[in-house]
Amino acid sequence: MKTVTVMYMKGSDFTHLFISIDGKKFNEDKTDFIADLPIRSWFRPSDDDSFEWVGFVEEIEKATNTGIDNLSFEFKGDKNDEAIFMEELSKSGVQHDSGAAKVSFQGDSEEERGNRREQILEQAYDDLDKKNYTAAFRGFQKVSGKSMEAKFEMAQLYLFGKGVEENDAQAVELFLECEKDGFLEASSRLAQCHYYGWGLEGDDKEAYEYALKGCDAPEAYGYEAHYIAGRCLLYGQGVERNLDKAIKHLKICVDAEYDGYKEFGFAYEKKGDYTSAFKVYEAGSRVDPDCYYYLARCYEEGKGVPQDDYKAFENMKKVPDTDVGGQAALAWYYLKGTGTQQDIEKAAEICRSLSGEYPEEPDLLGAVAMTYMVKYEFEKAAEYFKRAIEVGAEECKTELGYCYLKSGKYKMAEAVLNSALNDLPDSGELYDYLGDCYYKNDSPLKDNIKAVRYYEKSVSLGNVDSMYSLAGYYSDNNDFDKAAEYYEMAAQNGHLGAKALMGAAEYDDGSIFKAVKLLEEPAQKGYTYAQYYLGKCYLKDEYSGHDYNQGIYWLSCAAEGGSGQACFYLSYIYGKEEFRDDEKSYEYDVKGYELGDEDCTYWLAYRHLYVEKYIDETKGIELLRGLIRNGVARAKYTLAEFYYGRYRLSVRKIGFFDSEDESAIEAAARIIPYVNFVGIPVVQGKKILRQKSDEKRFTAEDFANIREMVTLYKQLLNNPGDLESSKIKIVKSRLKSIKDKYRR
After folding, report:
1. Burial of 276 (0-12, 13-18, 19+ CB in 10 A)
2. Taking the complete model, does pTM exceed 0.70, yes or no?
C-alpha cells in the first residue's frame, strides 16, 4: 500500500501545493500546473494540449505503476478543501469514513471490490478492442495490483508503446512479475524479449528456456513459444541443434497456420528431405507470401521438384515488396536472365527502389554491384562490393577481386582473393582469378609459372574456366597437343567458349555434323562466335541438315551480337541471285563496317565508288584510305585502280609529276590547263572518228591523287601482301605506262 500525501495551502495572494508518494516528491512541474486550478479540476484531464494531465488519480497510478486499490490518500489543508478532495476521490472509487482525513479504497465487501475490478478490466479490454489505448492502459493500471492479467496487458502496452510511452525495460519487469506467478503468456513474451533483444540483451539460452515454459500458453502465445523453441533448435541457438525436435515444435505452429513455414521447410532441407521441404513451402505460400522466395529457390536448384528457371522466376516475382532479400534475389534473376530475358535496367530499378530504405542491406548492395558489373563498370561495382563486405557480406570478396582484376588493379585483386581463400579454401573460382592475376600480360605480377600452378589447382577443383585458360596458355606456347587436351576437357565439362572453338575447328576440318553438335548450346546461350559458325554449317550443301532459313537465322543472331564476319556473310548471301536483296546486302555492309569488319568496309567502299545506286566517291575513298592505314593490300590496289581509271589518258600525256612543291604543281597546271578525260577512238566502218571530249580543268587535287596512285602502285610492287599474281602483273603494267616524265 502506497501513501499519497497532499499538502495544500492558499492565501489571498499565494497558493502552495505539495504532493508526495511514500515521502518522495511527486512531479513538481505537474504540481505547479494544477496548483492554481480548482480542486475539482485536478481530477479532470487537461484541455491544454501543451501539457499532458490525465487526472489526479490516473497521474498517481502512472507514477506508482499500480492501481487505485494499492493507494491510500492523506490531505493536509483547509477542511473545506479536504471535503472537496475526498468527494472527488469517492467518484474515483475511493470510500472513507466521514471526518477521516486518511482514506483508502474500500468497498462494502471483497465481493463488491472484486466485481468493480472485473468491470474495470472488462472496460479496459473493450477500450483495447476499440484501439482506445490510453483509456485501456489506465483501466489495466487501476486493477493491476490485484489482477495478473491486467499487469500483463500493461506490460504489453509498454512493450509496443500503445497508450503510454514505449518502455521495454518496464515491460520486462512486469512480465517477470507475471511469470513468477506462473502466468504462461508472460513466459512466451519473455522468450521473445530474450530472443529479439526487447528491453534486455539478447540471450538465446534464456529465450529457449522461457519458450519451453510458454509452449503451454493459450493460442498465439503458445504458438509463438513453439516458434522460438523451433528456431533455436533448428539453428542451434542457445541449445544444441536438433532437427527432429525443431520439426515437432514448428509443425505445431504450421498446423495452426500461425507462422514457421519457412523454418519448417528449411528444417526438412537440412535433413535432405527436399520433397517435404517443397511441399511445406508450397502450402505455406497460401498463408505466408514470404514462402514464394523459398519455392523459387527450389525450382531454381531443382530441389524437391524438377529444375525450372521459368517457375523459379514466376514465384520470385510474387515475393512481397517488403521482403528485401527476396527483392534483391529478383534483381539477380533479371541480372542473370534466370527464367526471363536479361533486363539489367529492371534489376537496377528494383535496387533503386529499395536502396533508400535499406542502404546497408548486404544482398541489396551485392545486387547493385552486379548491375554495374554486368555492364562492365567494374570500378563502380567494386565500390558497392566493398560496402557489402563492410556490412558482413564476406562472400562478396570473390566478386570484388574479380572487379579489381578486370580493372587492371592486379595487386589489389591478389590481396582480396588471397583473403577470400581463408574462408573458401576449396574455391576453384578463386584460384582461377589468382591465375589470371599472374598470367595477364599487362600485370605487374606477371609470372607464368605461378599462373599455371594456380590454374592447375583450380582445375583439380573442377573449374572449367581454368581448363580453358590452360588450353590458351599451351596454345600460346605452341604445345598444341596439350592445348587440345584442355580444350576438350573444358568442352566436356560444359565450357561454352571451348565448345564454340572446338565446333569451329570441326567446321574447318569439314566435320559439319560434329560441329553442329558442339555449336548448338553455346549458340543458344548467345555466343556470337558459335552462332556465326552454326549459321555457316546450315548453309553447307554437304550437311544433311542443310537449311538456308536456319543458316540465315543464326548468322543474323551473330550479326546482332556484334559479329562483323556474320554481317559480311549475310551481305554476300543477299548479293547472290537466288537471295537477291540489294538493300539488305548494303545494310549488312554498313553494319559490318560499323563493327570494324575489314571485308564489309572494303565492299562498302567499292559500292560507293562503282555501284550507281550508292555512288559517293568521297566516302568510298575515305573508307579505302582507312583500310590502307591498316595495311590492307587490296584496298591499296582498288584505290590506285580507281585513280587510274579516272586519269589514265592524262598520265600517259603528262607522265607523272614527282615534285612535292606546290609551286611546281601550279606551274604544271598552267602549262596544261585542260586535259582530255575521254579521248577514246571510235571506229565506224573504215573511218576513225574522234569522240567529243569533256574538258575539265586539271587541279592541284588531281595532281595529288595521281601522286597517291603511283605511291600505292610502288608500295604494292615492293610489298604485295596477299595480292594475287594477276593483279601484280597489272601493277607492273600501270607503273610502266606512266614512268616517262613530262617534257615541255
Report:
1. middle
2. no
